[in-house]
Amino acid sequence: MTPFRLLILAALFYIGYRLLRSLLLEQFKKKSSQEKKDSQVQDVLVEDPVCHTLIPKKQAIRLRKDGHTYYFCSEKCCDLFTENSEEKE
Ligand SMILES: [Zn+2]
């Protein structure tokens, strides 16, 4: 084997390695972007009726009242909401 052939062989190995690596990386990227999409679907933003902050639904404090579900950023807002609605009634 001549040194020139060895060089070509090394280059081929290198190209093959790069190709495999980029393919793996692409697959990994696809997978992670899909996971991102899934978590975005779960992270629906809801509006706090008291301070009008948008909060992810799964982090929000829920209150069921008169068949409606209300979402709050904190227990403080939830308390304020129940106090205000009780005053009105
Ligand atoms: Zn709030």
Task: Summarize, please.
With 89 residues, this protein is α+β, with helices and mostly antiparallel strands. It contains 2 helices and 4 strands; from the N terminus they run H-E-E-E-E-H.
Topology:
Elements: H1 3-42, E1 45-47, E2 54-56, E3 61-65, E4 68-72, H2 75-88
Antiparallel strand pairs: 1-2, 3-4
The chain binds zinc ion.
Description:
- By secondary structure, this protein is α+β, with helices and mostly antiparallel strands.
- Helix content is 61%, strand content 18%.
- The protein has 2 helices and 4 strands, in the order H-E-E-E-E-H.
- Strands 1-2 form a two-stranded antiparallel ribbon. Strands 3-4 form a two-stranded antiparallel sheet.
- Zinc ion (ZN) binds next to loops.
- Residues 48, 50-51, 53, 72-74, 77 line the site of zinc ion.
| Spatial strand order of the main sheet | 1-2
Radius of gyration: 28 Å
The multimeric state of the shown protein is single chain
Helix content: 55-70%
Structural class: alpha+beta
User: Unreliable segments (pLDDT under 50, ≥5 consecutive)?
Assistant: none
Q: Strand share of the residues?
A: 15-25%
CATH architecture label name of the largest domain: Roll
Order of helices and strands: HEEEEH
Write the CATH fold name of the largest domain.
Ribosomal Protein L24e, Chain: T
CATH C-level label of the largest domain: Mainly Beta
